Amino acid sequence: MVAANPLFRGGWSWKKKLAATVLNDIWPEVLFFAGVATMVATVNVFTEIVFFFKPSLLGVLGTVLGLVISFRTSSAYERYQEGRKMWTNIITFSRNLAQLIWLYVPTDRPPKEGQRNLSPLECTIEKKTMINLIQAFAVSVKHYLRGESGVYYQDLYPLICFLPRYTGGSRTEADMLPMWHASEDGEHPINHDHDHPPRQTQSAPSSLDGKAEDTESKGFFGSVSKKKRNFDPEQVLPTVHVHRPLKPSRNPPPSTVYDYIPFLRIWKVFTKPFRTKKEHVGMRALLRRKEKPQLGDSNVPIEISLFLHNYINFVIKSGIVQPAAASALVNTMGTFQDTISNLERIGNTPLPFAYQAHLRMSLWLYLFFLPFQIYTDLKWLTIPATAFAAFLFLGFLEIGQEIENPFNYDLNDLDLDSFCLAIQRELHEITAHTCPDPADFIFSSWNQPFAPADRRTAADILRTGTDSYLHPQHSGIEPGMGSLRRTLLQGWKDVDTHTRE
User: Fold this and answer.
1) 459 assigned to some structural domain
2) Count of CB atoms within 10 A of residue 432's CB?
3) How far apart are CA 232 and CA 208, in angstroms?
4) Does the pLDDT of residue 351 top 60, yes or no?
5) Which site in 92, 124, 348, 468 is 20 to 30 Å from 197, CA atoms measured?
6) Which parts pass through the membrane (predicted)?
């Protein structure tokens, strides 16, 4: 997601800066209509032929097209904003659910009849595992919205590889659970007799010393050497084994000449029947980022949420959590499901094709006949005027089409990867909390609870006794709650006085 002016952003190549705008998408059409305007001006100046239409409908059609394009852009931006709100909900609910599990599910559980007594270490492993599944849920939503099916990704598989794969004791393909069965592609067959053939994922860290690493990225215009420092999100994930290579966590379509000269894509259409099966490319590769992928064919987020629901059901049935916490856990999972439904609605409900096609054809006709109507007033200025009109109208139309589905890899789409990494950091911060006894830090010599009216520490206040509070400046008042209330009142007056300009 581009949040600042890319032209003044350091560290970006000119290709990336250009891709952050819509210039590389509309320049052929702008050039075409500028060519039409050049033809009209040249013919009118150097020949006796007069290319001129009365501009009777120019104002009316321009106003109508402007309103329709404005509606198109506004509706697309509304979907963009709604997608951002839904991801804010995922971040918030992930944080809330992790806090509920970490704080409200106890680690010291009294033994109950019919249940195995778990040690505090086992309880902590249990809670941390479920919080890791919350992170896996967010990552699976990211891949699902991008049309990337399955679970074999560098940022997802290490978080869920321990989940059960079969319905019972038998281990055959027919007994595989839906999430795993839909993820197998036949190209890398799994050995059902063994859990993990010895192949290491790319997330296995050799070290976490944060040293600089030289990397080389390849694109249409050659290789560009870059130096990466510290940023390697998969390096902090579990080291596991898998029977097949894992796909990258982020896999945008590579930039080619077709992205900068779009009309050359027509050659791919003509040569498609002559390609072999091995050379065949799908519509996503054919049209690059212009083609919006379908949602994933295996609903991994739902599968992961079922395990979270099952854990919540377990702690409720076992009486491990209090009723209020149990209600909060169930409600949080319900809001997760609502958010997923809304994200699916945004991702798989584009603007009707008939509306888009009619709007674009109407705009093309308007821009084509525009030079014929403005030549008598502008003469040679018809050329830049037509080019500017094409740039203006086509730019807004292209922006609406680009942000209509904000979950893909366009630079102006939502940065789902950073959202997932933010969730990962926050979940680890939550589990780093030690859940101390409040008395361990409340009554310490660092705490000044009644400042600014009373700047004594809690330890100093308690030295005089737990029921005999007396402010040093309160003369003639009996120790106790009366003095305490006067201190709190004085604190309000001081704050109110010193915080107003």
Assistant:
1) yes
2) 8
3) 10
4) yes
5) 124
6) 26-46, 52-71
Contacts with 348 (C-beta within 8 Å, 6 or more apart), sequence order: 294, 295
3-state SS class at 218: strand
Q: What is the pLDDT of residues 59-100, one digit of tens each?
A: 778 888 888 888 888 888 999 999 999 999 999 999 999 999
Tokens linked to 68: 């329709």
Residues 6+ apart with CB under 8 A from 291: 283, 284
Assigned domain for 481 exists: yes
- Whether 104 is covered by a domain: the verdict is no
Query: pLDDT digit string (tens) for 284-335?
Result: 433 344 444 444 456 899 999 999 999 999 999 988 999 999 999 999 999 9
Query: What is the mean predicted confidence (pLDDT) over 203-219?
Result: 48
Q: List, in order, residues 6 or more apart from 370 with CB less than 8 Å away.
A: 33, 37, 58, 386, 389
Of 433, 434, 430, nearest in space to 422 by CA: 430
The verdict on residue 490 lying in a domain is yes
Name the residue range of residue 466's domain.
440-498
**Positive or negative CA dihedral for 397, 401, 406, 410?**
negative
Q: How many domains does the chain contain in total?
A: 1
Nearest-CA neighbor of 431 among 134, 204, 208, 230? 134
At 149, list the tokens: 């099916």
State if pTM tops 0.90: no
Residue 156 near residue 143, CB atoms below 8 Å: yes
d(CA 334, CA 311): 14
Burial class (CB within 10 angstroms; exposed 0-12, middle 13-18, buried 19+) of 341: exposed
Tokens of 161: 């590889």
Nearest CA among 416, 500, 412, 484 for reference residue 450: 484
Residues sharing a CB contact under 8 Å with residue 319, sequence separation 6 or more, in sequence order:
112
Query: Distance (Å, rounded) from C-alpha 453 to C-alpha 496?
Result: 12
